[in-house]
UniProtKB/TrEMBL annotation:
Protein name listed in UniProt: GAF domain-containing protein
Organism from which the protein derives: Salinispora arenicola
Cited InterPro entries: ANTAR (IPR005561), GAF (IPR003018), GAF-like_dom_sf (IPR029016), WH-like_DNA-bd_sf (IPR036388)
SUPFAM superfamilies: GAF domain-like (SSF55781)
One example GO MF annotation: RNA binding
Amino acid sequence: MNLEMREPVGETFGALETATLLRELTAGLVGAADLDAALTVLVRIARDSVAGVSWCGFTSLRAGEPAGAAVSDTRLAGLDDLRHGPDSPAMSAIGRRELVVAERLSRETRWPDWTWRARGLGVSAVISAPVDIDEQVIGALNLYAGARETLTPQHQLTAMLMAEHAGLLLAAVRDRARAVAEAGQVDATLLGESVVGQAIGVVMTQRGCRAEEALAVLRGAASSLGIPLREVAERLVNTVSRPRDS
């Protein structure tokens, strides 16, 4: 089996790298059109940005039912999708509402069928972190290591921080999508416009408010500054997206 492997990583994320990762998550997720798009961005960023992680997936439950999965590699899709079997690290994390870690699948006795499939795909270790989005949607962020990699306690901390941060951002994406669907409450044209929608998501995440309140904040800033709403939105999104100096 020809699976891509990275070089072993001796050092994992520090404070600066974690802060950069969370900023990248914020910039990527608030710009997503809907929850499915946001989950696709989430797993891509986790795979590409966290050293020592070969693949990433997100397992979803909506209204208590399996709702598919977002994956960074389609070959591993069956590991994240509960429709392929509920006995998995992700379901354990969701059910227990706590981090689940399997440092060596070669010695793992939990989830035997899942572990057999995972090892056949080249997975050597997994971390599953529960993610609370809203009253309808919950899930788990799953980080996978390949044969030449090790998931450390620092990876566990990073997974917990990502899961908590992603939960807030994904809730904002869901709220914004609902607001777009509710005729008359918010200007759907503005919400649908990419940069304004992104800025609304940023304000919702920062203030913990609904989309219509976030839009009012942006409009108030535009009025105070005497500049167009779109320019206010662009400034805010650029500020969130800009990497901090080290």
